[in-house]
Specification:
Structural class: mainly alpha
Strand content: under 5%
Largest sheet: 2 strands, antiparallel
Oligomer: single chain
Radius of gyration: 29 Å
Shape: globular
Strand order of the largest sheet: 1-2
Number of helices: 20
């Protein structure tokens, strides 16, 4: 009868070993699934975070604009127009349905804050820290479940059901691995964490330093140049408000200006336009190359190892605007090539046109350069786009449609040297350069153009020179690209002149029906979230 106890012991041993192996397999399988879906889950979380961020920011901005003191001479603005302005500022689109000079100083300050908090560089840091904190929390949670619950054969079946069992060999191997690596692993991880914190500080200081310098230069210019100072005096705009508002709007690539005419009223002030051009580029299309350049300079001057780590491990840090050296170089070249192409094309078509009438050669050169630099994303304008040739408008639409980080190249995988915390190098596969640089999808913008044409169908029949498909398409693409360029509305183009029609200095959308305006609000939100559709 002793055979039965022996058989029972063998069965128990077989059962325990099987449970151990099944638990180990389950642990590794779950870990594999987590690693497989982590990126998509974090991307979804980032999308949800940013979606609600812009919704909440727009609603709070609307309430602040509504509750702020308005100018005594200002007619009461409709709630839809206030909400549209808040969305436009939060998404840095600069689409306008009312004249900017109707807003009081307190309302201009509200719009300035919305542009600052909605700017791409500022929100990119929010996304970066949100995803990083989520990922760190997930890893910590998995580690606590996996390694803080050692196996116990006596209550093994219960622990299998709760999913807390890990083979002791796994824990022993990890412990021995940590002991063997010693300070090396800790040093590398510590260096990475310190580099990420330092990167946050660099970007935040970059944001405020560029805007402070920009506001200072603008203030000095309007203070010492009589023609610019006279413009602000006649409009009753404080120089301090104008300088700060314009600097934040330009760097954030929003395009709002406190004057009704945008920058058209300053088209003869070439110095002011030249001050704004670098802010436009450093706030968007050239930010990635500029950030890498700033980090390189800081590394050379301070000799801190963290800056070298950022440059050598840009992909591993996970900040979307910190790109490898080759990628940054190609991006800068593409930006300059596109500017030269746009400039030459615009000058060849419009140099002697009505749009540039009354300007001398130098003013035409600087004004044209300012216009094409603002074309991609900022939307500040010195010329009346309603009188430029249709071919130029088509080129403008195409250029607005390009993403900020367009490079037209696909950087293939290749072996690169990556330095760890001890200064040693190891071979690692670099990531492809795709993902940032592809064209945005058009297919879902076409229905918006069709729906808006449906809401404005009566005006398309009665006022075809102002309301036409090309003008509506330009407005939709401009809103989607968060640019803000517009053809405006002109009473002189009416086929049946309306004696009560008054010239206005707001966007073409300001003449749309409420349904058309709401559709464009949706387009602005979609444009701000378009990076998640790639």
């Amino acid at each position: 009868m002793g055979i039965f106890p022996s058989l029972g012991e063998k069965m128990e041993k077989f059962y325990n070993n099987s449970c151990y192996k099944m638990s180990s397999f389950r642990t590794y399988f779950l870990g594999f699934l987590c690693s497989l879906f982590d990126f998509h889950e974090l991307q979804l979380n980032s999308f949800v975070f940013q979606f609600f961020y812009y919704i909440i920011l727009s609603v709070l901005g609307f309430l602040a604009l509504k509750l702020s003191v308005m100018k005594t001479t200002t007619i009461r603005l409709a709630d839809l127009d206030l909400f549209f302005t808040a969305v436009s500022a939060s998404t840095v689109s600069s689409m306008s349905t009312v004249e900017m000079e109707l807003f009081s100083n307190s309302q201009l300050i509200v719009i300035t804050v919305l542009m600052l908090l909605g700017g791409e560089i500022f929100t990119s840091m929010l996304r970066f820290n949100f995803v990083r904190s989520n990922f760190a929390h997930k890893i910590k949670s998995i580690d606590s479940r996996v390694y803080d619950n050692p196996p116990n054969s006596k209550n093994f079946p219960g622990k299998i059901e709760s999913g807390l069992l890990v083979h002791s060999q796994v824990k022993d191997e990890k412990t021995s691995s940590i002991v063997e690596d010693g300070d090396k692993s800790l040093s590398g991880e510590h260096l990475r964490n310190v580099s990420i914190k330092l990167l946050n500080h660099v970007v935040i200081r970059y944001i405020f330093l560029i805007q402070i310098l920009g506001a200072g230069l603008i203030f000095l210019y309007v203070s010492f140049v009589p023609s610019a100072k006279e413009v602000l005096k006649n409009k009753g705009i404080q120089m301090q408000i104008f300088s700060i508002f314009t600097a934040v709007s330009t760097f954030s690539n929003c395009g709002f200006v406190p004057t009704n005419e945008n920058m058209k009223v300053f088209k003869k002030n070439s110095g002011l336009l030249l001050f704004l051009i670098p802010q436009v580029l450093l706030g968007n299309t050239l930010f990635a190359p500029a950030l890498r350049g700033v980090i390189w300079v800081l590394g050379k001057t301070t000799k801190r190892v963290e800056y070298g780590y950022m440059l050598n491990n840009s992909r591993e840090l996970g900040y979307s605007y910190l790109l490898p050296g080759l990628h940054s170089f190609v991006m800068a070249i593409v930006v300059l090539v596109l500017i030269v192409f746009e400039f030459l094309f615009f000058c060849s078509m419009e140099w002697n046109s009505e749009a540039l009438y009354g300007l001398d050669g130098n003013e035409k050169f600087v004004g044209s350069l300012f216009q094409v630099v603002n074309l991609r994303h900022t939307g500040e304008s010195v010329f009346d786009l309603s009188i430029v040739t249709p071919a130029v408008l088509v080129v403008f639409i195409v250029m607005m449609y390009l993403p900020a980080r367009t490079s037209f190249f696909n950087l293939e995988d290749k072996e690169v040297d990556v330095k760890n915390g001890e200064g040693e190098t190891k071979k690692k596969k670099s990531l492809k350069g795709r993902g940032h640089d592809t064209f945005s999808p058009l297919f879902f913008l076409v229905p918006f153009v069709i729906f808006i044409c449906m809401t404005e169908r009566d005006k398309l029949k009665e006022d075809p020179l102002n309301f036409n498909v090309l003008s509506i398409t330009l407005e939709v693409i401009s809103a989607y690209a968060n640019v803000g360029l517009t053809t405006g509305y002109h009473c002189s183009l009416q086929l049946r002149p309306d004696p009560f029609c008054k010239p206005v200095w707001y966007g073409f959308v300001g003449r749309w029906s409420p349904g058309g305006k709401l559709l464009l609000v949706v387009v602005m939100f979609l444009g701000k979230l378009r990076k998640f559709g790639k």
